[in-house]
Write a structure and sequence with these properties.
The complex is a heterodimer of chains A (about 450) and B (about 130). With about 450 residues, chain A is α/β, with parallel strands linked by helices. Chain A contains 14 helices and 23 strands. With about 130 residues, chain B is mainly alpha-helical. Helix content of chain B is about 55%, strand content about 0%. Chain B is globular. The chains are: A alpha/beta (about 450), B mainly alpha (about 130). At the A-B interface, helix 2, helix 5, helix 13, strand 20 and strand 21 of A face helix 1, helix 2, helix 3, helix 5 and helix 7 of B.
Chain lengths: ~450, ~130
């Protein structure tokens, strides 16, 4: 195990350092740290974080704020992380994938976090250990899991993981999928059709499919004005649908004969039942749709690791205690982000960041034997309905009647006004937010 | 890790405070817990000085309180802050104001962990009072 630990935990802690931390009287009176020169480091509780994405990285940073002494280890499968947020931009060329790629170097160096690039293959909750693919076993006092999402390809006849990697891309985990969608969009022939099929609730980034549809329409307007995007939706409502549809009317001729976007609701038969990858067509309740590219964003459940560790319930997601994000199934294990059941909070990067901060305080308080403080959560989702047209939804949340619910009268979407500055400023703020958010997470 | 005496004293004061206040169910989140929620737009601990969203670190408490109440009551034009402000009571706004006022007036990337821990502990030690 020692080879997994970075020098922070193995560094010799001198009596002088301990006096600095605890004061001379504490060291002299207890004699607690007298026996071994590195007893301080070895005796600190160890918090292990599975997943170095938005939830895991934010958690490690803010746990360091909440407890300067605790040992923190992140186990992350990949040395680099590509944010899903703003990956729609990459499809239409407003961002490059490189600009959305981050690592844990600053988390490691600035916040004294041990970073292990390895894959977790199992956990023993009784012994409080996790096992990795490279054969290591790590002990923990508290375990934090932030595993993202998994797709339910089986909900669509003819669909599969293989098809999703070759032809019918989801583009809902950023990386090669994003670039594949970009390639398909650029290849849509003149007057062609792109289909986007959003999932059932609940799913990651609720405005994501509709922002993507907006971007496709904007791309076609500039480069392929007789092409169009058809959204085949299993739902009758979607987040921010008021401001989104108003934007589509203003920008893309929505509800006219020449609209660049057509949205088929669940009631109108929009739910996709099956997909034919060879003929590029889908069957819906409303009939067969043929297209030049098909982007099915499949129904979702908690990430594979959460399933494997037995942290999910019958819904496929992870039930948590609302005050702390601690699993209702495994005490001492905490679940962050998209995998968790967080009631009114959407599955967004902002939510994962918010939950990680509440969880960091809860873990620190629990390790000290203190009562938990009152939890407060927040979410702001800025989306673009066009490169310079933003729409947003925002809320502050509290735990009330056992559920995470909007606090006060905070919950709301962008008002629809005649002020031209409103959507332009929202787009400016969106870009500010993206730059700032990734700094709060990774640096 | 190394910690300064100042931080040590502040942490001790804070844990004592936490112990004495742990008797009753907390009525509201601490100033720090709320302030952390502002970071995705305003920077870690409000220390973002190069974007359109205003920095909150070091903002005089009265300025913060007046702005938040004006947003909440709809007397100040807003894009999104009216919706955010409606989530907070007067006491919560005051606690955040007192916390942000104590944060270093410098870009987050140029702030050391120790410097920030000291500032955060000093802010927590006020208990949200000016």
């Amino acid at each position: 195990m020692s080879q997994l630990e970075n020098k922070v935990f193995d560094s010799k802690v001198t009596r002088r350092d301990l006096i600095k931390v605890f004061g001379a009287s504490a060291v002299a009176a207890t004699g607690l740290f007298g026996a071994s020169k590195n007893a301080f480091a070895k005796s600190a509780p160890h918090v292990v974080v599975l997943g170095g994405g938005v939830g895991g990285s934010t958690f490690a940073k803010y746990l360091r704020f909440a407890d300067p002494d605790v040992k923190i280890t992140i186990i992350e499968q990949f040395p680099e992380y590509i944010t899903c947020l703003r990956s729609n931009d990459v499809i239409v060329g407003y961002h490059t994938l490189d600009e959305l790629t981050f690592n844990l170097d600053t988390i490691k160096s600035k916040y004294n976090v041990n970073v292990v690039i390895d894959k977790v293959i199992g956990a023993d909750f009784d012994k409080r250990t996790v096992q990795t693919a490279k054969g290591h076993t790590l002990s923990y006092d508290k375990l934090v899991v932030s595993p993202g999402i998994d797709f339910k390809f089986e909900d669509y006849e003819g669909h599969s993981k293989e098809l999703a990697e070759t032809k019918i891309f989801h583009g809902y985990k950023a990386g090669p999928q994003t670039l594949a969608l970009r390639q398909q969009l650029l290849s849509v022939p003149k007057g062609g059709t792109a289909i986007i099929a959003p999932p059932q609730n609940p799913f990651r980034c609720p405005p994501g499919p509709y922002e993507r549809a907006s971007f496709f329409a904007e791309y076609f307007q500039k480069h392929n004005p007789t092409a169009k995007v058809i959204v085949l939706d299993p739902k009758d409502r979607f987040t921010k649908d008021g401001p989104f549809k108003k934007a589509w009317e203003r920008l893309y001729g929505y509800k006219t004969d020449n609209s660049l976007i057509e949205w088929v609701s669940g009631s109108e038969g929009g739910r996709v039942l099956s997909v034919d990858g060879d003929n590029l067509s889908v069957e819906t309740m409303a009939g067969t749709f043929k297209a030049d590219m098909i982007n099915i964003i499949p129904n979702q459940r908690a990430g594979k690791l959460a399933q494997k560790l037995g942290l999910t319930d019958a819904s496929g997601w992870c039930p948590i205690k609302r005050e702390s994000m601690e699993s209702q199934i495994q005490p001492g294990v905490y679940v962050l982000g998209d995998s968790s059941i967080a009631d009114a909070m959407p599955k967004s990067g902002y939510s994962a960041n918010s939950q990680a901060k509440v969880c960091a305080r809860a873990v620190a308080d629990t390790l000290r034997g203190n009562e938990l403080g009152k939890a407060i959560y927040s979410n702001v989702c800025y989306s673009l309905a066009g490169e310079n047209y933003g729409v947003s939804i925002a809320a502050i949340y509290e735990v009330r009647d056992g559920l995470i619910q909007p606090k006060g009268k905070s919950a709301g979407v962008s008002p629809i006004t005649d002020k031209p500055a409103q959507p332009i400023l929202e787009a400016v703020y969106q870009k500010n937010w993206q730059r700032e958010f990734v700094k709060d997470v990774f640096s | 890790m190394k910690q300064s005496m100042k931080l040590n004293t502040l942490l001790a004061a804070f844990s004592l405070m936490a112990a004495t206040s742990a008797q009753a169910e907390p009525q509201m989140a601490t100033g720090g817990a709320m302030a952390w929620q502002c970071a995705p737009c305003h920077g870690t601990n409000g220390q973002e000085f190069v974007e359109a969203m205003p920095p909150l670190a070091g903002m005089p408490a009265k300025q913060f309180i007046d702005a938040m109440i004006a947003y909440r009551e709809g007397t100040r034009a807003a894009i999104i802050m009216d919706r955010v402000a409606r989530g907070f009571t007067d006491d919560e706004i005051k606690a955040m104001a007192a916390w942000f006022e104590k944060q270093p007036v410098k870009q987050w990337e140029n702030t050391s962990l120790t410097e920030s821990l000291e500032a955060q502990a000093a802010a927590e030690a006020t208990g949200g009072q000016e």
